[in-house]
Amino acid sequence: MIKDNISTTLFILTNLNIILLMGFHIVACRLVSKRSGFKSPQMFLIKFVLFMNVPLFFGIILVARIELRSIIDLMSMLLFGALVFNLVSYVYFHIFNMSETARRIKILLHLYKNGSSHIDELKYDYNPKDMVNSRLERLIEMDEITLDESGIYHLNSRIFLPVASAFSILRKIF
Amino acid sequence: MSIEVLLNGFMTFSACLVFFIISIRVHRPKKEIMYVLTIFIIVPTIIFAIIFFTNDYRQDILNFMVIAEIHYVMSLAFIQTYPVLRIEIPTFKILLLLNNAKSAGLTKLKLKELMPEGELFTDRLMDLSNDGLISYNDGILDLKFPGRILALIFYYYRRLLGFSIGRG
């Protein structure tokens, strides 16, 4: 009975799409890094995840049609595919973003490459002022902020602001 | 696929989340990463294994895998989000500061003033030390075994992507 309920093809298709996303992302990064590099690697990954939803959704609809599923079944299948694919993509995005921006990962990698280090050496190599600079540069690259002629930063896009506000509110719960 | 299967996966995650929120309000453990992994991954895996071998799920393996997959993907998403909920993320802080400044905006100098060094660097070192990833003795920092494994994973991941170490 359960075998009739759950589509094996759906399960394989969803998980295969996740593997394809990671595989294509690695290949794209290797190709682009050899050339000019990304304007914003994070934004590229977000757009790529959104794009990969399209073949997944069409694939699920196709599977549902071949297996003669009802509309309710199709909705459940789409929900499962969307939930699993996008949550794993979210996790993958975090891992990628951590490797790109996280201060803790940078400290771990510094110690891995250079062995035990004095805190002052680490502070010198990883100046907190530079951290602000690199973040400002990254936000400009992502068009989230702008810098005017008098050297004043302004908020530009409002894509990440609601996320920042939501995390600020959620922080109170945890 | 029935909606019940999806809800079962969601309910196991929700149960872990509720337990986690209540437990950290009673007592917040020092090694938070380990605690989060225990609540969302280790304990549910043991429970899943018990249910799998004691109930008749061996005939319904796909049903069981869907429930487990939903639980694990939601848990992993939460585990990734949790540190962001605990510490001040500098990028988000810059956005919120600029939003508060409205059309007047802020200079780089002012932004740096509003972002204390401790928040950017020293506190992160303490987090790594508390989570047992690094040792800190008389100003000397070194990797502990779990920290070395984590660094190794990220080192080879960056190499796989063809990138150098991130800008931090």
Notable characteristics:
heterodimer; A: 174 residues; mainly alpha; B: 168 residues; two-stranded antiparallel ribbon
Task: Offer a quick outline of the entry.
The complex is a heterodimer of chains A (174) and B (168). With 174 residues, chain A is mainly alpha-helical. Helix content of chain A is 75%, strand content 5%.
SSE order of chain A: HHHHHEHHEEH
Q: What is the structural class of chain B?
A: mainly alpha
Question: Kindly, what is the distance between the CA atoms of the first and last residues of chain B, rounded to a whole number of angstroms?
Answer: 44 Å
Distance between the termini of chain A: 42 Å
Strand content of chain A: 5-15%
The biggest beta sheet of chain A is recorded as: 2 strands, antiparallel
**Low-confidence segments of chain B:** none
How many helix segments of chain A? 8
Identify the overall geometry of chain A.
Answer: elongated
Which structural class is indicated by helix and strand composition of chain A? mainly alpha
Average pLDDT of chain B = 87
Q: Number of DSSP strands of chain B?
A: 3
Helix content of chain A: over 70%
Low-confidence runs of chain A: none
Total helix count of chain B?
7
> How do the helices and strands follow one another from N- to C-terminus of chain B?
HHHHEHHEEH
Q: Please state the average pLDDT score of chain A.
A: 87
Give the amount of beta strand of chain B, in percent. 5-15%
Account of the protein in words:
The complex is a heterodimer of chains A (174) and B (168). Chain A has 174 residues and is mainly alpha-helical. Chain A has a domain at 2-101. Chain A has helices at 2-5, 8-34, 41-66, 71-101, 103-114, 119-125, 128-141, 161-170, and strands spanning 117-118, 145-147, 152-155. Chain A has a two-stranded antiparallel ribbon. In chain A, a hairpin with a 4-residue loop joins strand 2 (145-147) and strand 3 (152-155). In chain A, helix 2 packs antiparallel against helix 3 (41-66) and helix 3 runs antiparallel to helix 4 (71-101). Chain B has 168 residues and is mainly α. Chain B has two domains: 3-86; 131-168, no CATH class. In chain B, 73% of the residues lie in helices and 6% in strands. In chain B, a hairpin with a 2-residue loop joins strand 2 (134-137) and strand 3. Chain B is extended. Chains A and B meet through helix 1, helix 2, helix 4, helix 5 and strand 1 of A and helix 1, helix 3, helix 4, strand 1 and helix 5 of B. Strand 3 of chain A pairs antiparallel with strand 1 (106-107) of chain B, so a sheet runs across the interface.
